[in-house]
Amino acid sequence: MRWFNHELITGMAVFTTTGNIVAAVSAALGSSFPDVIEGRPGEEGSLQHSIWQRRHRKGSHWFVFYLIPLLFLLLYLSKNSSLVFSTGSFIEAIRLGLNDITALYPVIAYTLFYFLIGCIFHIAQDAITGTVPSLNPRKRTGVRFFTVGSIQEYIFTFSVVFLAVILYI
Predict the structure, then answer these.
(1) Is residue 134 predicted with pLDDT exceeding 70?
(2) Where are the alpha helices (DSSP H) in 31-97?
(3) What is the three-class DSSP state of 129?
(4) Which of 12, 70, 127, 150 could disulfide-link 164, Cβ–Cβ 3.0 to 4.6 Å?
(5) Separation of alpha carbons 138 and 59, rounded Å
(6) What's phi and psi for 25, nearest 5 deg?
């Protein structure tokens, strides 16, 4: 999927389920991360592009890499905070953190939690446009419902966003 579609689908899905703009933005930012750490593909046919293509959707798309820290953050947040901060309480925690750095720990954990959710959403979305590493990183799983950048991708994105809006209203 194109980055824009990853961000839009993930941000809308998280906002629909949490009602929290901070969680949605964190997840939307995370939804591009697996591709960002691979670097730019370069011009098609160039050496840079062929190097990028060999490593695309490999280690950076292994969901376990994101799931393990996500589970630790889940454990931390379940003991020390809440998975659902209101935007006001989030801002209040940041204000308190200016005087006491430990007040920022739940804010950082909360933001990272949803960032990692975004990474996992990215991988799940890529699994419907090709293959990604499975539980065993040397084996791949996925299906190709449509190709990246196709009109079907944009119809899918529009449909998911439309559904999210309907569910939120």
Answers:
(1) yes
(2) 33-36, 47-55, 64-80, 87-97
(3) strand
(4) 12
(5) 9
(6) -70, -40
